[in-house]
Amino acid sequence: MIEHILTISYFGNTVSDYLICIGIIIAASLIIKVFRAVFLNKLDKSVKKSKSKVLEFISVNTDKFIIPLFYLAAIYTGLTYLNLPRYLRRDIDAASIVITTFFAVRFIILVINYSIRYFFQARSEGETTSLKGISTFISIIVWFIGSMFLLDNLGFKISTVIAGLGIGGIAVALAAQAVLGDFFSYFVIFFDRPFQIGDFIVVDDKMGVVERIGIKTTRLASLSGEEIIFPNSNLTNSRIHNFKRMESRRVVFRIGVTHQTPIENIREIPGVIKSIVEGFEDTRFDRSHFQSFGESSLDFETVYYVAGSNYNRYMDIQQSINLRLYEEFEKRDIKMAYPTRTLYLGKTDGASKEADK
After folding, report:
1. Strands 283-293 and 298-307
2. In angstroms, rounded to a whole number, what is the distance separating the alpha carbons of residues 102 and 81?
3. Which residues does the chain have with pLDDT short of 70?
């Protein structure tokens, strides 16, 4: 009786064929479940112990992308055992290729983006720049390659499509040179890293904090509050002053005293300035000299260094130095100079003779 039932045929396959197909799928699914339980559970334990971001990435994405492909392979293997019509087998093959390509492309994009992010994080304390633009570009390229692979496997002739894209690409490149220039400048900024988000930079007469680095433009928040937008090609072709990476700030300031200042006080001034500058923890004194005779002052030039790039800290120190100098000069009765002009009035010879008459 059972043997008779097993030999009954439906749609070109016997009952035993269907049972074998189901058995293959169930057996393969059980093997996948065992693999998932053993491998991923051990991997999860390793992640908890080591707190490794790489192992966590492998664990999450294996469960998200690799395991579904294993189940797809199990179903496909079971169905290939059956004697199916040609059109149905063709549809199953096409569906398998589409699903496999979809999962493979997404997994490849994730791996590449994660590798780039991990690489740049390993080289510095954080991300050096916005990865949104490069991630978008990578996604477009991988999806394009995946689509060409899919169409080729589905039986489409892609050589004509690729040739047409090549000709169209040349035309687009010629028509959009400026856009492509900014686009490739983005990659120069991304890999060369002249600045990153949060850096304070000066470009020509513009300055501000980098807020966003896009594929075409980079945006700065200026000190006065407005947003400054630079095309990326302008930045790569300009001289950029990056103050965020400044380890110490060189400060040069000048003061002038009156010409009537006694020579003893003039000799004391560089020493007074030195003692004041050296009284701050974050400063390093370099020099102080009686520089020149000005039109209305005796000019002194001082150079010192402030550790770090904090502008407010530098201004606080300079303000304190100025106040201390003012106090010391008052104690010594040294007068600060300001622009003055002395006029000597006298009578000319002609005016004298006229007065005698």
Report:
1. antiparallel
2. 25
3. 1-15, 17, 119-133, 158-178, 340-342, 346-357
